[in-house]
Specification:
Layout (H helix, E strand, L loop, with lengths): L2 E2 L7 E2 L5 E2 L4 H5 L7 H4 L5 H22 L6
Length: 73
């Protein structure tokens, strides 16, 4: 399973030699229910992991924008 390195912020190691760089912490820690998609992703391919990180980052951005919308009664 991939793991984040606290000393190398933004790096998620897939094995001893390969890692993804510039992974936003919010995407790495993002929950959907009790599931963390970035941490559970079985597909180790760069395209698969990169796609899920981008999708989670964008989902977080959209959720923040929705939270800021004022609803009139």
């Amino acid at each position: 399973m991939p793991k984040a390195d606290a000393e190398d912020k933004g790096k998620v190691w897939i094995n001893e030699q390969q890692y993804f760089d510039n992974v936003p912490q919010i995407a790495w820690e993002f929950f959907i229910g009790s599931y963390q998609p970035a941490q559970r992703r079985k597909n180790g391919s760069k395209t698969g992991k990169t796609g899920i990180i981008v999708a989670l980052s964008e989902t977080h951005r959209l959720m923040k924008a929705i939270d800021e919308i004022e609803i009139e009664n």
